[in-house]
Amino acid sequence: MTSAAIPDIVISRLPVYLRALTRMLGDGQEVTSSKDLGEHLGISSAQIRKDLSHFGEFGKQGTGYQIRFLVDQLRRILKVEKEWDVALVGAGAIGHALAHYNGFRDRGFRISMIFDKDPSKIGTLINGFEVQNVSRLSDVIPQRGITLAMLAVPAEAAQAVANELIKAGVRGILSYAPINISVPEGIHVQQIDPVVHLQRITYYV
């Protein structure tokens, strides 16, 4: 099955499986089952088996999954068996937090460039990286071959910055800006707006 034929909701669950399996491995567990994994995640065992079946057969009836093997396979499927360099645009409060977050490195990502337009931030160091002028973005990102970026800029700047990132060769954007970004076909955007998630929660609360 081609990647285009696999529902996006399935792809969105794979990192969740990978995170849980990696924790199991860290706890010394070597084998799991779809039932065990499902109980950890609140997902039915049938759903887990169906999701994984899009990519092959990874377990055996009655013996379950070898966790290390399944972790390796999921990392391969998600293409995080290598480390991805990521450009971060925005050196404000959210940008600072992202730059100092230690969870990226051991899961396949490394923030390697930071940009901002604020003269008071340009030239300063954040977690060892010098904040560069956003005007240099279109020059230095292609030189490094970076294809992933994170946006931590105000809503009014997000579309223009995204346009520049795409021109520079970025194909995937994780945006913390509270606005929907329009991108050409073939460019992938994931939006993280805490307020939207809180509003979803308050419906139930």
Task: Give your account of this protein's structure.
The structure is a single chain. The chain has two domains: 75 residues, Arc Repressor Mutant, subunit A, CATH 1.10.10.10; 114 residues, Rossmann fold, CATH 3.40.50.720. It is α/β, with parallel strands linked by helices. A hairpin with a 2-residue loop joins strand 6 and strand 7. The strands form two sheets. A seven-stranded mixed sheet has the order 6-7-5-4-8-9-10. 42% of the residues lie in helices and 20% in strands. The model has no long low-confidence stretch (mean pLDDT 91).
* Structural category: alpha/beta
Domain count: 2
Described by the principal axes of the CA atoms, the overall outline is: elongated
Q: Largest sheet, described in full?
A: 7 strands, mixed
Order of helices and strands: HEHHEEHEHEEEHEHEEH
Mean pLDDT: 91
CATH structural class of the largest domain? Alpha Beta
Helix share, percent? 40-55%
Known CATH architecture of the largest domain: 3-Layer(aba) Sandwich
Uncertain parts: none
Strand content: 15-25%
From the N-terminal CA to the C-terminal CA, the straight-line distance is: 40 Å
CATH homology superfamily of the largest domain: NAD(P)-binding Rossmann-like Domain
